[in-house]
Amino acid sequence: MKLPALGISTTSRKGGQNLSLLIVLIVAIGLSVSTQEFLSGENTHNLVVQITPLLLVALGQAVVVLTGGLDVSVGAVIGLSAVIITLPIDPNLALALVVASALVIGVVNGLAVGALGIHPIIATLSTSTIVTGIALTLRPTPGGDVPLWLDRLVGTDVFGLPVELFWSLAAIAIGLALLQRSRLGLQIHAIGGSQSNARLAGIKVLRTQVLAYVICSMFAAAAGLFLASRISDGDAIVGLPFTLMSITAVALGGVQFTGGLGSATGVLFGCLLLGFLSNGMNLLNVSPFLQSIVSGLLLLIAIAFTRRKTIGI
Amino acid sequence: MIRVENLTKSFGPVVCLDQVSVTCEDGSVHALTGENGAGKSTLMKLIGGVIKPDSGKMFLDGDEVQFATPREALFGGISTVFQEFSLIENMSVAESIFLGHERVSGGLLRKSEMFEETERVLDHVGLGISPKRLISTLSVAEQQMVEIARGVSANAKVFIFDEPTAALGDEDVKKLKRLIRELQRAGKNIFYVSHRLEEIFDLCDTITVLKDGAHVTTKPAADLCVDTLVSLMVGREMGDWFPSGNPPQSDLSVQVRELRPASDAPEVSFDVRKGEILGLAGLEGQGQQEILRALAGVYPETTGSMVSWNDVTEVQHRLDAGVGSQVMKGVAFVPEDRKKEGLYLTLPIDQNIALGQHQKNGFLRFVRKTRDKVQALMGQMNVAASGPGQLVETLSGGNQQKVMLGRWFLSDAHVFLIEEPTRGVDIGAKAEIYQLLRDFVGGGRSVIVLSREMNEIIGLCDRILVVRAGEIVAEMDPETATEHSILRAAITGDPTQEMAA
Amino acid sequence: MTVTEMSSVPREPRKNTNTLHQIGRVLNLPPSVYVVIGLVLLSIYMVPVLTKTPFQMVILRQAAPIGLVVCAQLLVMRTKSIDLSVGGIFILMNYMVTSSFFTSLNPVAALAVPMAAAILIGAINGFFIARLRASAVVVTLAMGAILLGLVLFLSSGRPPGSAGDFVRFLGVGKVGIIPVAVIIWLGLAVLLEIFLRRSIYGRFVSVIGSNPTAAGLSGVPVEKTLFFTHVLAGAFAGLGGILLAGYIGMGSVKIGTDIVMISIAGVILGGITFGGGRKSIYGAILAAYALAYIFNLMTALKLGEPAKLIVQGVVIFAASAIASYNLKRN
Questions:
Q1: Does C1 map to a domain?
Q2: Which of C71, B136, B64, B149 is CA-nearest to residue A256?
Q3: How would DSSP label each residue in C273-304?
Q4: Inter-chain residue contact B326 with C219, CB threshold 8 Å
């Protein structure tokens, strides 16, 4: 019997996470064989510090990508929250402002895409520009002080383990709970699968889209706090490279840009892969600039294998 | 017991359902049948909460009910297995059944509980698959069972099956029938929409016939036989706007051999003569559209041969080379859904029409001036527009249809493949379009059309091929064919017992 | 019976005589028209010197590279695609025309080699997008990153060079009082408009933008058209990058970061959205002019880089929100 034309032919909703895991393992084994430092305590610590902010942003990005959207304002949100948290104001107020601004940006993005029908890339590109402009207005050059509470949350050891590891674990736990266990996660997957059929099942599509963009902004804001604390500075443009990196990590993690397919574990593998590659190239004394070429090429290869019906954007 | 009273629904000027009242008793399997476009699916969509009626009431066990969405209907007690599935491919079976009313505690899904419940329900409907399987991995039959399981899980009172066996094999049909009988024994109210008469007589106890959106009759199945039922379904008035033309020439225009639109489709072979309009008739979704589209070059997996003759030149066609290649060789395709698949609504008439001719020239060549030609063609076709610069989206349906045909008139195609030549077109324009097609074949060219309207096929065509399950089951002469005989062949696949209506 | 139900009086085409309709037509102008009017009025009121000819020439010269990259983006967006690698192309062009290897070449080669590179980049984008059906956003984003990395890798450690005389001439030279760059820009924009209007390719671009499904079903070579569009976009972006490099005169890697944003802003201000291909090129020309004008006005008003970003973002957001609203209303 002839099946209806299915857009996907996968047996799992987790996208290509297993393939990513395989590549991660190969890269990890390759690096531990070819370098001595890769598995050293100092380097693994470095790895955790490098990967944590990317993981935060990429998990948020994945939430939006799963709905079938894209958020290129994550880099700007990182910068804004890094700037706000280092403003010379009451630390509690600063934190409240970080959360509030991420909330507003997420809501604006979600409404622009879901209610106004603006293409996600144009909507989030324009908010990205505005947010970077605001962040640069607040702090034209890097500076400021990180509040004490945040300072303690980065760069220290807890139970003999780097505290950054707990950021990562918390992020991945939230990501897993959200995407694999929660009702909202199910609804996010459902609207990524088919907006019209999700509507038939009574899912409020606009609400879900807005929430997805809000979650994405929140994750980006958390990454901003982390980065501000790590470099002890508020830098308005510290986050800009993370936009592309988060998209790359999401693609490498096997999340499909058509929406509906992908997993938090896949995103973790994508981040590990990017982190290992950049770390490994450092260890092998490859120019840092070559790394950006390699990750770009990886992204190209990763999406060349995505089968889509539509052509264009 | 479910009862609908005086349901009416129009889409624009077209009344799809007019004052229809139907009652389905507990433990009854109630068939709804009628020709293509009789309003069966519209009625079921109204009951299932997919669309809202313009007027009319619905009572479930005596209480008046109204549903805004299928989900409301489901929890109000009405479960619909749609013709187009409402499942989402990337959801698991369990998630599909619970989507919209998930079991949660503290925001987290109670997965194991839902799995258990799903297993119970799947067991009930006799579907032995894991609740964790994704919908995209299921066969059509299994997907249908999941839809039914959703209704069982929601403890629905009314089950609606809209053409449920259209895509099922024999084994799956048996399974489905068993399940329906079980639901019947449980005292459910079942609507069964189909035009497969053998199934109707096998399953249903009551039969309602609709025609052109109106209620014709409701009778116990025992009081009806196949022939009386077919007679009740047919009987549209024949218009006298079909133009007469010269009989087709004896020369061949198109020869199709061993055509398979897809690897699992049956083979068909047929000829079309010069000056002939050939009609493909059949019930909806029986493969006639696939045959036509395969000839148009839409499916890359098509196999088989096609040869056509333009004047005296023989043209060999490659059916797997795409639509563009067929256009170059003088084969034009006019799809059914002109707004989505045929026209460029945001562009002016002349750009829409001239495109067919441009396509035959090189990519970087300059367009030749076509405005005068388009203007003249618009005059010939009697397109009501302010000029060639008017945007197509502002035209009426009939004029849009003419623009679509005009594109290929101008490109000098010698074979037309047309789906539904007059869908949503008013009478005046219909007659004009028929005349245009007649004039077109008059010059030694040919047309293959498919249409849901049996009368259109009879009135317009020189010869009729009836398609059932992808195969040509009958060839008819429109002089002697009737709506009744075509429908009979389309339903039973048996053309021998032709009888006068 | 069915037939009578379906019968409806054929709608007479509405004549464009009533006032409401005319107001509608005026409102249908590309947003750049209003922005330019607003800017001129604002500068007459606040910085009158900006409206004088020499300043106008400066604005126009700055508008030239923007105008060319807007043409590139307009082409791909009209076919419902996008090119986010134009920033990377600008950076690569800047590197190529300022690195000593290329400045030592003769003028033709100094122009031809970078242009060939830009065309090749467009072709690679086109291959991935049209042939492999990969998402244009991701492909061109990756391409942008690769190009940036490439330039950083190639130029690392070395001080930036300066552009050759010929490229310099293209960037800052003048014929009479008119900058050469402006002549190139306007000339090419007009040629592009004629090409799009008169060539069969141009028709294909319109129909793919209007209805890709119908284009495929009526035999339009969708893949080929999209591929060629990306190649053409690569060429336009490349020339824009060369003009900007010639204008700046020296090597820089910061140069292309906001070009992507500016190009999209220009397209939207020019009245074109994804697939919407009705408006003519003058909207895009005015948009490039308007963007250069905004930057100059803001500089004159002593507003810094951040404020420019905010204004840019707000303008794009507003223009695209209005465009979607109009689309929904129809």
A1: no
A2: B136
A3: -TT---S-HHHHHHHHHHHHHHHHHHHHTT--
A4: yes
**Residue C108 maps to which CATH number?**
1.10.3470
Nearest partner of B49 among B158, B138, B146, judged by Cα: B158
Neighboring chain C residues of A121 at a CB cutoff of 8 Å: 82, 84, 137
CATH class for the region spanning B238-330+414-501: alpha beta
pLDDT, tens digit (0-9, with 9 covering 90-100), for A72-97: 999 999 999 999 999 989 999 999 99
Give yes or no for A274 touching C (CB within 8 A).
no
- Contact call for C314 and A130, based on CB within 8 A: yes
In chain B, which residues have their Cβ closer than 8 Å to the Cβ of A181? 108-109, 111
Structure tokens at B160: 């609606």
On whether the CB atoms of residues A158 and B85 are closer than 8 A, the answer is no
Q: How many domains does chain C have?
A: 1
Per DSSP, helices labelled H in A194-256 are 195-200, 205-231, 240-252
Task: Tell me which architecture the domain covering B2-233 has in CATH.
Answer: 3-Layer(aba) Sandwich (3.40)
pLDDT of residue C9: 37
Q: What's the CA gap between C121 and A299, in Å, rounded? A: 16
Pairing of strands B55-60, B206-211: unpaired
> Which ranges in chain C belong to alpha helices (H)?
2-6, 19-27, 31-46, 53-78, 86-98, 100-103, 107-126, 136-155, 165-172, 180-198, 200-210, 212-217, 222-248, 259-269, 281-300, 305-329
ipTM here = 0.83
Distance (Å) from the alpha carbon of A39 to chain C's nearest alpha carbon: 28
Q: Cβ–Cβ of C136/A313 closer than 8 Å?
A: yes
C267 compared with B141, residue with greater pLDDT: C267
pLDDT computed for residue A174 by the predictor: 94
To the nearest whole Å, the CA of A219 is away from the closest chain C CA by 21
Domain that holds residue C129: 34-39+49-329
CATH of domain A45-304: 1.10.3470
Q: Tell me the mean pLDDT in the region B26-53.
A: 87
Res B140: pLDDT: 79
Q: Which of residues 146-205 of C touch B (CB under 8 A)?
A: 198-204
Domain assignment present for residue C192? The answer is yes
A222-232 burial, b at 16+ Cβ within 10 Å, e below that, comes to bbbbbbbbbee
pLDDT at A241 (0 to 100): 85
Answer yes or no: is C3 within a domain: no
Tell whether B214 is within 8 A of chain A (Cβ): no
Q: Which of C142, C264, C305 sits opposite A296 (nearest CB)?
A: C142
Mean pLDDT, rounded, for B305-331? 90
Could you report the average pLDDT of every consecutive run of 10 residues in chain C (330 residues)? 36 46 62 88 88 90 95 94 94 88 77 94 95 87 90 76 83 88 95 92 91 90 95 97 88 75 88 72 92 89 86 87 74
**Cα(A84)–Cα(A95) distance, integer angstroms:** 8
The answer to whether the Cβ–Cβ distance between B351 and C276 falls below 8 Å is: no
Instruction: Note whether B226 contacts A: Cβ–Cβ < 8 A.
Output: no
- C9: in domain: no
Distance from CA of C190 to the nearest CA of B (A): 16
Domain boundaries, chain B: 2-233, 238-330+414-501, 343-411
- Could you give phi then psi for residue B267, rounded to 5 degrees? -85, 140
Nearest CB among C9, C14, C219 relative to B323 is that of C219
